[in-house]
Amino acid sequence: MKDCIFCKIANQEIGTEIEYENDNVIAFKSIDPKARIHLIITTKKHYDTILDIDDAETIQDLHKAIKEVSQKFNIYNSGFRLINNCKEDSGQEVMHAHIHMLGGERLRDAII
Ligand code: 5GP
Ligand code: ZN
């Protein structure tokens, strides 16, 4: 999608380092990390929100990415937090579906 920052990252139109890739999903570091490790796991194809993902293989690849990214960053065993902001009330700023993966430290200030 035109003017979507995550589409541009997925298409390698801007110089963000891709930390992980599978058929339908990529992951890269957040530009504004909220934990020692803060990855953005997102779809290669544009979907506005997680509710719009209508492809079973993409859902499967998101799950595969969660496992493999956590392994790459050595937080598979120690643990991590996943956050998905969906639509306005959540504070979603980038309207391209994505999951935040936070870890690498003992996380505090949990809402839930
Ligand atoms: P949201 O609030 O939409 O759930 O989160 C967007 C996330 O993407 C935030 O962690 C923000 O720092 C990150 N982000 C926004 N623009 C860029 C960018 O151009 N590059 C990278 N690497 N991360 C970005
Ligand atoms: Zn997009």
Percentage of residues in DSSP E strands: 15-25%
Instruction: Give, in spatial order, the strands making up the sheet with the most strands.
Output: 1-2-3-5-4
In quaternary terms, these chains amount to single chain
Overall mean confidence score, pLDDT = 96
Number of DSSP helical runs = 2
Spans of 5+ residues with little confidence (pLDDT < 50)? Answer: none
The helix/strand series, from N terminus to C terminus, equals HEEEHEE
Please provide a written account of the structure.
It is a single chain. The chain is of the alpha+beta class and 112 residues long. It contains two helices and five strands, in the order H-E-E-E-H-E-E. It has helices at 5-10, 56-72, and strands at residues 20-21, 25-29, 37-43, 80-83, 98-103. The longest helix is centred in the middle third of the chain and has 17 residues, at 56-72. The model has no long low-confidence stretch (mean pLDDT 96). Zinc ion binds next to helix 1.
List the helices and strands and how they pair.
Blueprint: H1 5-10, E1 20-21, E2 25-29, E3 37-43, H2 56-72, E4 80-83, E5 98-103
Antiparallel strand pairs: 1-2, 2-3, 3-5, 4-5
Index terms:
binds guanosine-5'-monophosphate; five-stranded antiparallel β-sheet; binds zinc ion; 112 residues; globular; 2 helices; alpha+beta; 21% helix
In short:
The chain is an alpha+beta fold.
